Amino acid sequence: MAAACGLDDAAAAPARPVPVDAASWDARVAGYPADLGYLARGAARRLDPDLVLPGVRSMVVAAVSYATAAPGAEALPPGHVFVSRHAWCLDYHRTVGERMERLAAAIAGATGARTRWYVDTGPVPEKAWAAAAGLGFVGRNGLLIHPRLGSFAFLGAVLTDAEVEGRTPVPDGCGSCRACADACPARALPRPYELDASRCAAFLNAACRSPVSADLLPGLASNLYGCDLCQDACPWNRRADRPAREEFRPLPGLHLPAVADVLALGEEGVRALFAPTAGHRRDPRLVLDVASRLAGGV
Ligand code: SF4
Ligand code: SF4
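YS: structure for the whole thing
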């Protein structure tokens, strides 16, 4: 069913409340940067799928690889900057959303059950559910690693009141490796499985709504939007499948662009550049601010 919907894999977990007590969740999100406050605001619904779809019995999580043959940050020439793979292509909310809609319809058609689907923006922690469903394991870098697809895979979830059979969990695959932590320019992975979002380049240049403070600038490395360095370093990604789907290929102007070209675009040009991508909500003034500050050092 997953392949017929254009997905690489799908698995299900019983949709029970996530076993996190409210106090420890509150303590955890209290340490998040203010721009991630939405995680705290939706906590009750994020932790209990029954509040999202009353009567839900299964959480079906699907993965679709966005790995292509296009080189990553290791191929950056001097004076060029990096836009993360997830944002150099067409907006995955749409391209993956179409697939999830097909999967939800297929489940409903086969079982007569109710369904509700999400890709990233809903009240569903897809990564935790993907691990619970046996789709992969959560790596030291905090990302879901699928044994065949690695971590360059978008996740989506379908809640349903159908009973869907699960599979065996995937064991931890990090062992003694710490390649992601060593590759992180921001020292944002100080302890296994713990991301310091306030330092992470992918937070600072994509989610944070204020300019990057001078002391955190070196941690951006050459990243204009997002950062793939901890994923590039991961051995699971080096041996992963690369389906190289057309819709995940870099759009013009977004693959390792020259920083001077980005600056020359101005606000309207940057807005147009990111318009078809998952970065379309980013304030172009913040993109240009990062570009101008990277221009001195790339
Ligand atoms: S995305 Fe970049 S900055 Fe963030 S943890 Fe990974 S390597 Fe570090
Ligand atoms: S780089 Fe190594 S430690 Fe980090 S997620 Fe991959 S396997 Fe785990």
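YS: worth flagging: The pocket of iron/sulfur cluster (ligand 1) is lined by residues 141, 183-184, 186, 188-189, 195, 200-202, 227, 229-230 (CB under 6 Å).
IM: good catch. Also The longest helix spans residues 92-111.
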